[in-house]
Amino acid sequence: MDVTGYEVEGIGYDFIPDVLNRGYVDEWRKCTDEQAMPMARRLLREEGLLCGGSCGSAFYHALEIAKTMPEGTRVVCILPDSIRNYMTKHLMDEWMWERDFFTPQVPEQNAEWYGKSVRFLPWNRKTQTINESVTIRCALSAMKAADVEFIPIADEEGTVSGVFSQTKAMEYLLAGTVNLDTNVLKCYETSFKAVNQDDTIGLASRKIQNNGYVFVLEDGKFVRSLSRKDIFAQIMQ
């Protein structure tokens, strides 16, 4: 699995805590977001436990281990975090849908277009990226020419390192921390929303609904931007 990011926080880092004695550990297991987050929601729904994502990771593998034990064996699982810092994450259906952790029920009237591949969307606008060396002025000019509010920052190979937006530019300009001749890296975001060409229009729509845009990638390289305009163009065909 090609993992480019993660949602479960506080575990899996590339350093070993000094207080950890690995001699007491018999087995290490990895857990994906797709396993952890639904399990955390299940603990809430079925057990009334207000758990964070790390609990989902721990309990997912506790159940897997329990399946290999003789009947009647007692398995102890430590749940390491609470929901306090994650109220806007896996508690929300929209957050789970956007990350494709589960599929929402599709309204019947949307069935015709919802499950189609993103690659079949109409493509009328000019595809454009900017590189890390340009100024805010140049970035805004490029966005105006492409008729977009968000534009990816990418290298010559098309690998995206972040997103520059009119919203973020306005925020920094009003604060007086940048001017139009400042480099874009002073007010860009390294986190960006993306789908693959074979993902559904429904998934892309949900990401656009919450963020205003989504980038389409092919083998990790930028292909095009999508906005609400593109989705409506498909719906109205």
TrEMBL record:
Residues annotated as domain CBS: 123-182
Keyword Nucleus assigned: no
Gene Ontology BP term (one): cysteine metabolic process
A Pfam family it matches: PALP
Nuclease as UniProt keyword: no
Lineage: superkingdom: Eukaryota
Listed InterPro entries: CBS_dom (IPR000644), CBS_dom_sf (IPR046342), Cys_Synth/Cystath_Beta-Synth (IPR050214), TrpB-like_PALP (IPR001926), TrpB-like_PALP_sf (IPR036052)
Keywords carried by this UniProt record: CBS domain, Pyridoxal phosphate
UniProt xrefs under SUPFAM superfamilies: CBS-domain pair, Tryptophan synthase beta subunit-like PLP-dependent enzymes
Cofactor(s) essential for the protein: pyridoxal 5'-phosphate
Family: Belongs to the cysteine synthase/cystathionine beta-synthase family.
UniProt-recorded name of the protein: CBS domain-containing protein
